TrEMBL record:
Superkingdom of the source species: Bacteria
Membrane topology note: Multi-pass membrane protein
Phylogenetic lineage: Bacteria, Bacillati, Bacillota, Bacilli, Bacillales
Root EC class: translocase
Subcellular location: Cell membrane
Record-linked PROSITE patterns: ATPASE_E1_E2, HMA_1, HMA_2
Catalytic activity, as annotated: Cd(2+)(in) + ATP + H2O = Cd(2+)(out) + ADP + phosphate + H(+)
Name by which UniProt lists this protein: Cd(2+)-exporting ATPase
Amino acid sequence: MGEPAVKREFVLDGLDCANCALKIETGVKGLEGVSSCSVNFVTKTLTVETQQGRDEEVAQEAKQLVKKLEPHVQVKAKTTGKAPSRKQVLVLQGLDCANCAAKIEKQTGELSGVTTSTLDFVSKKLMIEVEDDKQLPSIVEQATQIVNRLEPDVEVIKEDSLAKGTLHEDHRKAEMRSKILRISIGGILTGIAAFAPLAFPFDFSLFVVAYILIGGEIVARAIKNIARGQVFDENFLMAIATLGAFAIGEYSEGVAVMLFYQIGELFQSLAVNRSRKSITALMDIRPDYANLRVGNETKQVSPEDVRIGDMILVKPGEKVPLDGKVLEGVSMMDTSALTGESVPRKVETGSEVLSGFINKNGILTVEVTKEFGESTVSKILDLVQNASSRKAPTENFITKFARYYTPFVVITAAALAFLPPLFLSGATFSDWIYRALVFLVISCPCALVVSIPLGFFGGIGGASKRGILVKGSNYLEALNNVKYVVFDKTGTLTKGVFDVTAVRPAVGMTEVALLQYAAFAEVHSNHPIAVSIRKAYGQDIDETAIQSYEEVSGHGTMVSVNGAEVLAGNAKLMNKYDIQFTAPTEVGTMVHVAVNGNYAGYIVISDEVKEDAAQAISALKELGVKKTVMLTGDAKPVGEAVGKQLGLDEIYAELLPHQKVEELEKLDGKKLKKEKLVFVGDGINDTPVLARADIGIAMGGLGSDAAIEAADIVIMTDEPSKIATAIGIAKRTRRIVYQNIIFALGVKSIFLLLGAFGIATMWEAVFSDVGVTLLAVLNAMRVLKVD
């Protein structure tokens, strides 16, 4: 007996090239002592089996080989079992300041040991990933300290313990009521001081008390932030502006401006929170419980507590909590939460159901096939909620812009306050200081920092409601520049449901015998064509009659059945083995069969074009797509027939997987720098091409793990027309985002000029800050109303 093999797995972090993955696999296979090797490009995993005693040497040689082929790729040993988490999600309850959110994200990302730090202002989630899981508790503690330093009123809660923090919402409501009461009393005192016939110092005393009630927390926060070195924020700006008004004797305006600001902040907070809830409601597909069958009893449990193989009961009106197979019952399912489809889907015994479906009428008994963490609803929620970690270029630009904009305006305001009185005759310090204070109030960039991420997140949420999963704002923005769309054929433009439409035996061969040989040849294949042949044969296949079985990549199969050598596949397979035959003229996919070196005939298999495929191509051209192309491994007559029917610009047929990548690269070389190329495939067989395109779109991804992993965008239904819908959502999102940028910058620019010339007062300045932010947030929410 030989030494037992040792299996090891490595993660190839940073592997983005499908061709390089193949080179790595080939290279490692050639190392001494390697019995088998495979590279999974989707999961970026290198699996190696070696001889006992050679595993460490092979591991080192494999790492050196990877470094030689792909220097930027990091090779990390994949741990067995459940690896300790290197990621933590913190929920920042009460975070309402977008500027502060950007500071928290920046400072957390600079902590030692942190690989990535992303703060999603919309969902209030700070996602931290670290190099070493042992560092995670310490880094989480440091991140919490950063949050407490920058935003003392924000509560930091670990997402996995969020359910325990339910009292926080009541606490927030109590705080809101207290704030409204203070503002109300302060407003009344301001009115009395301003309009009642009171002499100094009584009116001044009332203004001071009113100011402390209304703006005391703002001033206190500004002082704390200055002590921590955080100067340029809205608390500092409002404190300086209003206290400056007091200093030059404008008591009523100082208090009134703070009052207006606080009221505006209150409305802004309500608008942002309502917007968040609107987006969250779109993704309200998480099941609350599962009815677990234990013997003859049923008990409600958390979906996380259910295991594979358990039986659950799904009653009418309930969400399906986990993916599974129906064992008993018949019902109609509302799948709109996952797919956007309005027409209910019928399920019965043997049907697969996915978590997130809603049971309309019957009672179903379901056997669970995936744990909750691996279920469809979990993956969709994770994708959408974490989409903000991939920021669009516009978001990154605004973040950088805001970082420099506020200090610039503050420095300008200081110059405005002190330089004109020194150089202009007749200019007074009180007048120019007032103008500078107006400048300070205007300078807060909240309108941009809040509304733009909200717009992109709303676009992603609106797309998910229509069955389109976008993995990041960057992909949503990139859809605006799509000029080339490349399609796979089978399962993308066609239904992928094959049927045998003709059996054409050669002289001396019967239809039954030809079909039988083909069925034996396709016995181990899961390809739809193989399934259709076995279905047409309709009889049990005795696998003991098969002496050998070999797949010839891109060509077909070669088997030995009861001593007969059988070839079954495409025309290339016949040519490869010098089998003489006459090419058929029929349209359809041909499976040629040869027995003992003699041509035995062919089987015609047809696939139906999807109902909306032609409409999809037409809609893309209306949206400005320059060229639509089809790449298929199918026969040329079949590809050309489908392409002509749909109105495609170019058709490339009879391609092997690597040839598809080559054709895609040729097209990529023709496009302009800003133009984007999309590849649309089934997400399973087309992984290398999906990865190579600027944007990879997986069609028919409902329940397909490979599709969700491989693509940048997943169409949860089988409808090509959803590609045009996705582009439409992207264009509308960008239009609304640009409206907010132009509106916010335009209004602020006008008021900065008016303030500099002494025309605008603090009242207008506060409107240009809080009012513009409120209007921008409301405008951003229009993206959810895409038809």
